Amino acid sequence: MKLTDLRFDCGSCACVSLADPYVLKKFVDAILQIPHFKVTLTTFYIIGDLVAPDLATAMQSPGRRELKENGLKIVPRIIPRIFEKLGDAKFVIRQTASKLITKILGEKL
């Protein structure tokens, strides 16, 4: 399965701009539809870093605050996909999804 099969046209833009919340939402939503284990796990880690970056990373990159704000903007759209992954057959996916939900709730509250 390719991203173009998921109606995300990578060819229309030179690169994926994470600064644009609309592009970020569409991209992450498309990635979460891919059923492969490593893709899902890596996507969860990336979402977790977008939503709640650690202090060491935040200190090093000047645009990190904007990226975190955009990460929090995509949460309402992708949270149903994360809840779907709680029913996955693989324990690691279920465990990582529950940790990600806890991390998101910690940032939102």
Describe the structure.
With 109 residues, the protein is an all-alpha fold. The protein has one domain. Helices cover 66% and strands 0% of the residues. It has five helices and no strands. α1 packs parallel to α4, α2 runs parallel beside α5 and α4 crosses α5. The longest helix has 21 residues. The chain is globular.
Supply the key terms:
single chain; 109 residues; mainly alpha; 5 helices
Outline the low-pLDDT stretches.
none
User: What is the average of the pLDDT values?
Assistant: 76
The fraction of residues in strands falls at under 5%
Note the gap between the termini.
Answer: 36 Å
Shape: globular
In DSSP terms (H or I, runs of 4 or more residues), the helix count works out at: 5
List the topology elements.
Elements: H1 21-32, H2 37-51, H3 55-60, H4 64-84, H5 91-108
Helix pairs in contact: 1-4, 2-4, 2-5, 4-5
Short summary of the structure?
By secondary structure, the protein is an all-alpha fold. It contains five helices and no strands.
